[in-house]
Amino acid sequence: MELRAYIDHTVLKPEATAEMIHKLCQEAAEQRFKAVCINPGWVALCKKLLTGTQVSVCTVVGFPLGATTTASKAFEAREAIATGATEIDMVLAVGALKSKDEARVLEDIRAVVGECRGRALVKVILETCLLTRDEIVKACQLSKKAGADFVKTSTGFSSGGATAEQVALMRATVGPDMGVKASGGIRDRKIAEQMIGAGANRLGTSASIAIVTG
Questions:
Q1: Can you say whether the dihedral through the CA atoms of 159, 127, 50, 213 is positive or negative?
Q2: What is the mean pLDDT of residues 10-25?
Q3: Residue whose C-alpha is closest to residue 33's, from 50, 48, 55, 49
Q4: Where are the beta strands (DSSP E) in the chain?
Q5: Which CATH code is given to the segment(s) 4-213?
Q6: Active centre residues (catalytic)
Q7: 63-107 confidence digits (pLDDT tens)
Q8: Torsion sign (Cα): 78, 95, 36, 153
């Protein structure tokens, strides 16, 4: 299986340096990964480094808790697009979902989708390790209703990452036409292939080189 086209080559750690971002972009271009995924402060640099390549620039919004205001998420998305991002991975309002405030969750996603429409893909990070099975289903339904392009399992900053069972549930809920991104704990080829087999069509990982080179 050719995995390169599935991979969002990721560095989201707070101590990431400019040197690490340069290396990330160089590796992504050489390996022809789908995207790099970085914090918003690095978007402009990645855009500059990846100009002339097919690698997309992905950044995060409301990261890593999802507990900021809807207005701030919309602003983050707008600014990220202005500086060169073409993919936005936003964190769901997890607490609102668990409070059964579906209207707020829907509004939160729609605000970001509205900023991105026609300019950037939107992936909604559910943080599946914090959700029940029913809450994962509801989060997927609301993300689809709001017009997002993908649902994504995890930030990698909470108590757990992706599981194949969660990915399969997300794929079954959103159907064949919406993206599913697995992230968190994908460290080798075997796990990567399990996630794709379960229905993921994008993988977020910092172990990209190890995955594609064995």
A1: positive
A2: 98
A3: 55
A4: 7-11, 35-38, 56-61, 87-91, 121-125, 150-152, 179-183, 202-205
A5: 3.20.20.70
A6: 89, 152, 181
A7: 999 999 999 999 999 999 999 999 999 999 999 999 999 999 999
A8: negative
